[in-house]
Design a protein that fits this description.
The structure holds two protein chains of two kinds.
Chain A lengths: L15 H9 L5 E8 L3 H10 L3 E9 L4 E10 L4 H11 L3 E8 L8 E8 L2 E13 L1
Antiparallel strand pairs in A: 1-3, 1-6, 2-3, 4-5
Chain B lengths: L1 E8 L3 H10 L3 E8 L6 E9 L4 H11 L11 E7 L7
Antiparallel strand pairs in B: 1-3, 1-4, 2-3
Helix pairs in contact in B: 1-2
Classes of the chains: A alpha+beta, B alpha+beta.
């Protein structure tokens, strides 16, 4: 169940989350909200789905730069948490972005590039009271 | 107090929201994608009293249109515990 599929064979499971979660028969008792950068969304969602988890994407914005990002909602059994966190940390890298700020004390507004580290991912895990599919 | 996060098909959004509101539940809809349907889906957030969870799920069950393919899920529900709830 924990074997990694390459992204190419992902298409064999049109609904990866559902089928795997049921095959495994493990109760889904954790709910995870993961905020990732737009660039990391595809790979992260795919990697999580390949773990056999239920993944839903919501577009969102936020953080220091107010950039668009993606919130992934993930349903998972308790003992998959470590795997999921590992996969997320593999896919979501911290990057340095540059924003232009005016140079202080200059007679003209001369923009200078200010580096800002943009975070990898924010993970929030909540206990699920009850999980159902129909 | 509990929060139900229900992921349903986009086409079911209208009837399901309608049915929930008629039954006295408050629904917030968020557009989402992925997961059990590669197309767009709707995520509904429903705040309910503990004892009404069953009723809300029943409404969801009845208002989602049955799919032609039994392998395809109509809805995925997470019921989460709410520590604090207030409306201001």
């Amino acid at each position: 169940m924990t074997t990694f599929h390459s992204p190419e064979d992902n298409h064999q499971h049109p609904y990866p989350g559902v089928s795997h979660a049921q095959e495994g028969g493990l109760p889904i008792n954790l709910f995870m909200a993961v905020v990732v950068q737009l660039q990391d969304e595809r790979n992260t969602a795919r990697a999580l789905a390949n773990l056999g988890l239920i993944v839903i994407q919501l577009p969102s914005t936020g953080a220091f730069l107010g950039r668009r990002n993606v919130t992934l909602l993930v349903g998972l059994p308790e003992d998959r948490l470590d795997d999921a966190v590992r996969v997320i940390s593999e896919q979501c890298r911290q990057r340095v972005e540059y924003i232009s700020t005016p140079l202080e004390g200059a007679p003209l507004p001369i923009p200078i590039a200010t580096p800002i580290p943009v975070g990898g991912a924010t993970i929030i895990v909540i206990k699920v009271d009850r999980f159902e599919e129909f | 107090m509990k929060m139900i996060i229900a992921i349903i098909r986009d086409s079911d959004n209208e009837p399901v929201s309608q049915a929930l509101v008629t039954s006295g539940f408050r629904v917030t809809r968020v557009a989402s994608t992925g997961g059990f349907l590669r197309r767009g889906s709707s995520t509904l957030m429903i705040g309910v009293e503990d004892e009404k969870v069953e009723q809300a799920i029943q409404v969801l069950r009845e208002s989602t249109t049955p799919s032609e393919d039994p392998g395809v899920r109509r809805a995925t529900l997470f019921v989460l515990n709410v520590e604090h709830f207030s409306q201001i």
